[in-house]
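Sorry, explain these C-alpha cells?

***
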Amino acid sequence: MGRRSKIQFGTDGWRGIIADDFTFSNVCKVTRAIARYLDTTYSKTRPVLVGYDTRFLADQFAHTAAAVLADLGWRVQIVDRDCPTPVIAYNARHLNSAGALMFTASHNPAPYCGIKYIPDYAGPATTQITDAIVANLDRVSDAPPSGNRAMISTFDPKPAYLKFIYGILDVDRIRSAKLKVKYDALYSTSRGYLDTVLADCGCEVESFHTYRDVLFGGGMPEPNGKQLAGLVDAVKTDRADIGLSTDGDSDRFGIVDEQGNILTPNVILLLLARHLIKNRGKRGAIVRTVATTRLLDNFAATHGLELYETAVGFKHIGEKMRQTTVLIGGEESGGLSIIGHIPEKDGILADMLVAEAIAYEGKPLSQLVQEVISEADGPLYNHRIDLRLTNSHKKAVLDSFTHNPPTQVAGFAIKEVGRKDGIKLYLEEGSWILLRPSGTEPLIRVYLETNSPQKVSQIAAAMERSIHQIQPV
C-alpha cells in the first residue's frame, strides 16, 4: 500500500521525496482520502480542480489524481499547464468548485513534490480539514485509477485570475510610472503570469529563467540569498527600478531594490501596510505569525489597528482573514495577502503591490524602505537558521528547550518564555528567539530578531552551540 507511515500533513499539505515516499501509489491513497472528505462535504454537482507546478512528474501525479477522482464520480477540471498556487486557489472559489488539489512542494528542493487541498473558500485547508483527510488514510486503498477520462476536462485558469488581480491593482497608476523591471522567474509557475501583468501595467520588463527546468537550474526555487544573485546583478547593471521574483509555485515573493539590496519579507509587509493605508485608503487589522517582525506591532499601534499573532503557517492567517477585516496578513517566509484578495498567499500580487507603491510615491524603493522602518521605530535585524538534524536529535533539542529553557543566551537574560508555536525566548533588551520544527522539511528552525547586526551574530552563534551540545536521545 505504499509507505503509509510517512504520509503526514504539515503547515502546507503533504510533501515528500519523489520515488521515496511521494509515489504514485501514495498519491492515489491521499487522493482517495481527500475524495472521502469531499463526499461528506460537497455535492458532486460541483467540480474538483487539479493544478500542478513545474516539478518533475508533478503533471503526471496531477493527472493520476484527476483519474482517481473521476473514478469516484467527481467531475474534474485540470489546468492546461503548470500554474501558480494562488491562481488555482482563486479559481476554486470563482468556479464554485468543491475545492482544488494542487501538486507542489513550493520552495522545497527539486527532489520533493507535494499535494495540498484547497477548499472552496480559496485558502489553505484548516487543521480540522487536514485531520479529517489524514483519518481517512486508514479507510482507503492505494489502488490505481481505471483510466476512464470521460469526467475529466482541461481549463485555462489564467483569464479569471488576471481579471481579478487587475481589479485589485491600480493599473493606471502603475502604467503612468513606466517602471523598469527585472524579473527572474526562477523556472517557476509565475512565468506567463507576472511578466504578463507587468507588461499590461506598462512596465519595461526583462525576464530571466522563464522556462521549465525540473532541477531549478541546480539551485532552490526560493527567492532569496544566492538564488537572486543574478537578479541583483541585472538590477544594478541596468539601473532598474526594481527586481521581482517568486518561488516555485508563486505563492512567495522576492524583491530587490534599485540599489541591489534583497529586501526581507518583514520589510515588505511593513512597506505594504503603509502603502495600503496612505495611498489606497484601506483599513483593517494586521495579522502576522509568531516568527514575523514586531515592527508590525509598532506600526499597528501607531495607526490604531488591531494586531493579531498566529502560529506559523499561512492557514492560520487565512482563517483570520475569513473571520475579520484584515488589511494585510503575512509571514517572514515571504507570503502575504491583503484586504479584498483571497485568504491565500500570493507572490504575484505582492510583487505588483510593491511596484504600485513605487508608482504612488515617486521615490526609489530603498528610500521608501528607510522611511517606513524609521516610522515603525526600527531598524530591527532578523535572521533564520535552518538546522538539519536526525529525528532523535531534533526530539532531544525540542524536549530540552521545552522543559529546561535557558536563562540567558549570549549573555542576554531571558525574561519570558512563550509556547504558542514552538519555544519563543524573549530577551531583556527586546530581542526574541523562536525555535520550532519545520512543518514541511526535516529541520529545526531558529528565528531571531534584535536591534543590531552584532547581536544577531552573537545570538545565532550561541543558539547553534547550545543545540549541537544537546545529545540525541
